[in-house]
Amino acid sequence: MLKNRSAVVTGSTSGIGLGIARAFARVGVNVMLNGFGDAPTIVKLQSELAAETGVQILHHPADVSKADQVAALIKAAETAFGSVDILINNAGIQHVSPIEEFTDERWSAVQNIILNSSFHAIKAALPGMKARNWGRIINLVSVHGLVASPFKSAYVTAKHGQIGLTKTVALEVAETGITCNAICPGYVRTPLVEGQIEAQAKAHNLPHDRVIREVILAAQPTKRFVEIDDVAALAVFLCGDAAGSITGASIPIDGGWSAR
Ligand code: NAD
Questions:
Q1: Among 93, 96, 212, which residue has the most ligand 1 atoms within 8 Å of its CB, making it the best to mutate?
Q2: Which among 213, 38, 184, 28 is positioned nearest to 13, based on CA atoms?
Q3: 36 Cβ below 6 A of ligand 1
Q4: Which domains does the chain have, with CATH numbers?
Q5: Which of 9, 66, 154, 171 could pair with 88 as two cysteines, CB 3.0-4.6 Å apart?
């Protein structure tokens, strides 16, 4: 049913974005990958996924912290595929610091990569979606779009902002065939989280397994990481016809974290 649709997934050379890109390719969606990484690895990833699924897998190197590069990413996908039917705003970074030591540079980088990029991508993709009267926009947010944790001021602010953006866009396009939703995962074991495990292990002088249990998963009631494939399956569901009336929603997939 999603066969022959086309998607842009920002930050899809790694982690959750890559999992979502794979899941879309497997249901017949052409995918424009985006994100950093070394060129041979990205080319190999593209050719393996294209060979496995038979869809077109392209890559655009836009730095999504820059508005003009986000616009170029959407335009490149529209030119290559004829349309951007699905937009997944997934690119993100984390920076952990007490607020009085938070540098202006890190604050701005987090806002630009997470929140401003989502605005610029939606702005660029919406005219085409409106012209075709069909579209699916998913902002890959976080449980930190719903609740806060100390020392993550920029991330929590950007993620709460993405939820505001999700609701606003959903209302603006409510009478069209376009939906806009937020997926809010708890901890998923990706390179972004591996960095936090490493930093906490050093800070507390603890082995990795204790950091995972006592620090990282302390607020996640299941005490298990959320699986990348489960987040990807939710994204695919939200793009299907059965999800046509789900819009403006912020859906937790967080092992019960936000139920506290
Ligand atoms: P990751 O570090 O594995 O992947 C991040 C991706 O974003 C990479 O492909 C990277 O190249 C890309 N990226 C970073 N800066 C970029 C930029 N300026 N321009 C273009 N691409 C850029 O991270 P992840 O854990 O897969 O996170 C993906 C998203 O999911 C993020 O928005 C993150 O906040 C969110 N999230 C992650 C978790 C988790 O526990 N891992 C939980 C909730 C939400």
A1: 93
A2: 38
A3: yes
A4: 6-187+227-259 (3.40.50.720), 189-225 (no CATH)
A5: 9
